[in-house]
Amino acid sequence: MRVDLHAHTNASDGEHAPEELVRIARERGVTVLGIADHDTIAGIERAVNFAKQFDDIEIIPAVEFSTDWEKREIHVLAYLVDYLDPATIALADKFREGRLGRAQKILAKLDALGVPVEFDAVAAIAGDAAIGRPHVARAMLAAGHVTSIQEAFDKYLASDKPAYVEYESASPHQAVEMIRAVGAVPILAHPLEVTRIIPELIQHGLVGIECYYAQYNEHEQRELVDLAKQYGLLATGGSDFHGLGRMGHMSALGKVDVPIEVVEKMKQAKEKVGNKKPNA
Ligand code: AMP
Ligand code: ZN
Ligand code: FE
Ligand code: FE
Question: Which ligand is located closest to the Cα atom of residue 7?
Fold first, then answer.
């Protein structure tokens, strides 16, 4: 059994279509795959439907929500989301729309900096994907303002560069509550630098933290597992895979040692998060 609970498709900023991601995962021997795109559930259904023909892989439907806390971006994962449920769809739409407004603000800054790109150009590149800085970077490249995606980030889009715009999103505390309200399991993503927020989030219903994260070394992972134990939280994990071709450090699909038990525990936790139909 190989468990990887954190991978992106091209429904957000991943490189591969949902079906392709499932295919790569099977090649790597992944038997439980979490699809966790940024602020969208759009890739889940295709992955689930495609995976149905195989008996060696299970898809765990998830979303990675971008939230705001003390001027930094915190990612909160929602696991076992009911992706066909209207309440879940409405929640994902709300976060996704936040990205749209932010992209427009980034474009206004680029305009003022003398490197204008059309919103339509960015939207065309993003397609159905939840819009993000990588799409803006590609539009800048296409417009000839930069000679590489990396240059777009290094000169304009990185968090300390002039066209950066902060997220105006929900707080992680609110996200944890909203995730529970739609019957999903809230897990704090890659929490190493923000461990001090964990006790507060537990008050709001946090169920687990991402410990077996491919970009953390063994010592760091162990530290987080200990922390999870101490707080009585689930210890989940994943690679944060974005694609084979780029983001080398994020290419580790399946290269994590997540104990299989956590999947069952997550399913048990889902039974307890409460009201699945807030409007019923
Ligand atoms: P966004 O979701 O709009 O904040 O964009 C986040 C994505 O932008 C990340 O997943 C990376 O793909 C990319 N990214 C962020 N910072 C950098 C950077 N300094 N250099 C290259 N890519 C970056
Ligand atoms: Zn990403
Ligand atoms: Fe993340
Ligand atoms: Fe991620």
Answer: 4
